[in-house]
Amino acid sequence: MRIIQSIWTSNTANLLQNNMGWLSPEYNLMSWALSCLQLRQYYPEVVLYCDSVGAKMLIDKLQLPYSEVVCNLDVLNNYNPELWALSKIKAYSLQDKPFLHIDGDVYVWKKFDDFLLKSGLIAQNKDQISDFENTMQLLELAFAYFPREIIQERQSKNPIQTYNAGIYGGSDISFFQEYTTKAFTFVDKNIHDLSKIRVSDFNLFFEQYLFYCLAKVQNKKVTVLFSGIVKDNEYKGFGEFDKVPFEKQYLHLLSDYKKSEYMCDELANRLRQDYPEYYYRIIALFKKNKIPLYKNYYFFDMYLQKDLVLSDSKLKSCFLNNSFREHHKISKKIDFKNVSFDTLINENSKSLLDEIQLEDFAFFCQKIDEIVGNKFSLLSADYLYGRDLNKTKYSQILFEDKENIYLKKIVVDNVFEIIESSYDWSYYFEKNSDVSLNINSLPSNVIAVIHSLIIPECDAVGFSVSTLDDLDLVVLEILQNAKTVATLLEELKPYFDEVDLKESKTEFEMLIFKKIKKAIHNKSIRVLV
């Protein structure tokens, strides 16, 4: 099977400064790297269709190992840059034998099954999202032309369904020739009305909805990777890097996943773990060109890729062997920013909080500033980075072997502090380069005792925040000394109703495993290996 990917940058000036829909530009490049590298683990033929800017970045600079590069997508440069799906349509149209197109935000950890690859038409899954109808109505108000197949489907008054194009392909080449011709016609005949719509919304309709309608009219079977129909808020589990490869072998960071700091962190961590030379090649590019990274570790001040890779390996081993001293003078001082009330909250935001909340928030900021300045600043930055390098593997080490998980040992990593406050302020602190306040909603008006975990970080911010509930606190207390998972479960049982435990043993274990995963993510525990 011929595996293909496509990238069209619409002649963007610099991919180091264009996020291409991601949280930050580096994550776009990291996604392309991980997607390509994983595909090459299983397929000898992985072809990239690209424009000249894409080729210069992915091939010349990142040196991604595509088996073939077809640089022919500059022909699209006269189109609106928001019509990003056109590169995929163009790539589909150029195929003359069975193929599978895989998006650059899809990552695989096994080969696709033969029954899928032998199908005439292939897609990721079918979906039915309520917002599709609202967008379609706006297109109908703005556009004069729609393909006959879409008009016919709209007349049936059916809810809008599409086939998600995380993967598209198959052996029915004649279908793809007709489909892609119709897709370009759909775009070209409405090109002068694009100013009437949000252009990016059009992509789903000339790619995925048209595919669905044409296949339906022609009574073509579409074989999907995932059965069932995905509806509102049901695209879940497509970014669970902590379950790779033992539970999940296919991930797709579609839509808002790309804007999630958590997901982008997980993507970056996976690339760093499995392909450090490519991860640090990307980092070195940004540093060499003096372009800020979303998350800037002290460690990145060595600009040469080979030095970064060597130091990565050394720090990982030092952490595992406990050959650091946690408290020592760090070789390079991290310039931590002050966490002060006045710099974090503006006048408009202050007006949303009452006097008691403002006082509590000021206290919260003061405590973080004291912790970062008086304690975290004394920690070894090398130790913290070594911790981060090893954390990525903890979930796999712990949960991969379901039979022996109970024998694995875990222990608290005691380089954190806990702050008590009357309100939950943790969601205000999204880790980012300028430590700006993120006010999405007001805290509850109910005064309570809130425990926040303050974790030292070796980036420019110096800390991250995670809220703890009562069970989290108990788990951390029990794990002050190393315990097997089985022992942890036993020591937690007195905190639960005996009858409930007998009736819900599986649910109890799942709850505790969820707490362990949370503690791994917020770096409050270690898995002993």
TrEMBL record:
Domain of life, source organism: Bacteria
One Pfam family per UniProt: DUF6734
Domain named DUF6734: residues: 1-284
Protein name, per record: DUF6734 domain-containing protein
Lineage: Bacteria, Pseudomonadati, Bacteroidota, Flavobacteriia, Flavobacteriales
